[in-house]
From TrEMBL:
<feature type="binding site">
    <location>
        <position position="128"/>
    </location>
    <ligand>
        <name>Mn(2+) 1</name>
    </ligand>
</feature>
<dbReference type="Pfam" id="PF00491">
    <property type="entry name" value="Arginase"/>
</dbReference>
<keyword id="KW-0378">Hydrolase</keyword>
<keyword id="KW-0464">Manganese</keyword>
<dbReference type="InterPro" id="IPR023696">
    <property type="entry name" value="Ureohydrolase_dom_sf"/>
</dbReference>
<dbReference type="GO" id="GO:0046872">
    <property type="term" value="F:metal ion binding"/>
</dbReference>
<feature type="binding site">
    <location>
        <position position="126"/>
    </location>
    <ligand>
        <name>Mn(2+) 2</name>
    </ligand>
</feature>
<dbReference type="GO" id="GO:0033389">
    <property type="term" value="P:putrescine biosynthetic process from arginine, via agmatine"/>
</dbReference>
<feature type="binding site">
    <location>
        <position position="130"/>
    </location>
    <ligand>
        <name>Mn(2+) 1</name>
    </ligand>
</feature>
<feature type="binding site">
    <location>
        <position position="220"/>
    </location>
    <ligand>
        <name>Mn(2+) 1</name>
    </ligand>
</feature>
<comment type="similarity">
    <text>Belongs to the arginase family.</text>
</comment>
<feature type="binding site">
    <location>
        <position position="218"/>
    </location>
    <ligand>
        <name>Mn(2+) 1</name>
    </ligand>
</feature>
<dbReference type="InterPro" id="IPR006035">
    <property type="entry name" value="Ureohydrolase"/>
</dbReference>
<feature type="binding site">
    <location>
        <position position="104"/>
    </location>
    <ligand>
        <name>Mn(2+) 1</name>
    </ligand>
</feature>
<protein>
    <recommendedName>
        <fullName>Agmatinase</fullName>
    </recommendedName>
</protein>
<dbReference type="GO" id="GO:0008783">
    <property type="term" value="F:agmatinase activity"/>
</dbReference>
<keyword id="KW-0479">Metal-binding</keyword>
Length: 288
């Protein structure tokens, strides 16, 4: 008997309902780093993963297989990308995959590998749209992963939705418009009591057109006054409740989730780590 991942961790890879993968990389972040420490930090606290959700859903018969962390080369992005691909190849069967970052730059290679030959929709929860052409002289930082995905995978931009956004460079604003990317900015979610219906309608439309969904959650989508443990905090965000409400209506085609940008050294009282463990339980509860 173990208490890892709320006691849901199993030893038999073939029995897994979910795979957990850590990506301890933060060379793509700006001046506030520490995201590389997140996977082991969350793993150490994972005994606090609730096995019963806020709505009373019992998760105790779900089985999580922890594949450990991707081997990281902080100096060599392409070596790291190769290792992310290798780690995803260690999986077997049809279990869903949840990745824990790491800064958001690694969602580009993760998505690229995950989508492969399958048509894939992408739900991107973030304060920032992450569509800068370059940031800090790099095309592979956490300012650009969505731009790289659009340029370098087969994704149809109709099948992308940006959720909770509120902090742009003007170029990004124009880029989103020119690509006609569907967006539910943070102010719209905060202004509307119908946000969950609107989100649900759109995500189900996308799901009906694709083989699978990839859901990427940058934790800075949450108002940074509530979750401070992140590298690029932005005020005016959504609440954990609003995020959970939207997560709870994500349809079964969601095969991949990632939870990015948590930085333990920027956190206070482990509130961000505890938030991530509750968020995980909300994700798991969708597939009961
Ligand atoms: Mn991001």
């Amino acid at each position: 008997m173990n208490n890892d991942w709320g006691g849901l961790r199993v030893e038999d890879i073939h029995s897994a309902d979910f795979f957990i993968i850590g990506i301890p990389y933060d060379a793509g972040a700006g001046t506030r780093r520490g995201q590389a420490a997140a996977p082991s930090y969350i793993r150490n606290m994972s005994y606090k993963l609730p096995s019963c959700t806020r709505k009373g859903i019992d998760l105790t018969n779900l089985r999580l297989f922890d594949l450990g962390d991707v081997e990281i080369n902080q100096q060599e992005i392409f070596a790291t990308i190769k290792n992310i691909e290798k780690k995803l190849d260690e999986r077997c069967g049809l279990a869903r995959t949840i990745m824990i970052g790491g800064d958001h730059s690694v969602t580009y290679p993760s998505f690229k590998k995950a989508s492969g030959q399958r048509s894939t929709g992408l739900v991107w929860f973030d304060a920032h749209p992450d569509v800068l052409d370059t940031y800090q002289n790099s095309k592979y930082s956490h300012g650009s992963p969505l731009r790289r995905i659009i340029e370098d995978t087969h994704i149809d931009t109709d099948n992308i939705m940006l959720v909770g956004t509120r902090f742009y460079e003007l170029d990004e604003f124009n880029y989103i418009k020119s690509k006609q990317i569907y967006e539910m900015p943070a102010y719209e979610i905060n202004d509307s009591i119908e946000y969950a219906t609107k989100f649900s309608t759109r995500v189900n439309e996308i799901a009906s057109r694709v083989d699978q969904l990839y859901v990427s959650i940058d934790i800075d989508v949450i108002d940074s006054g509530l979750i401070v443990g992140t590298g690029a905090p932005v005020t005016g965000g959504i609440t954990p409740h609003q995020l959970f409400t939207m997560i709870n209506v994500i349809p079964p085609k969601a095969q991949y989730f990632d939870i990015m940008e948590y930085s333990p050294i920027c956190d206070f009282n482990d509130i961000g780590a505890r938030f991530i463990l509750v968020l995980l339980s909300e994700i798991l509860s969708n597939f009961k």
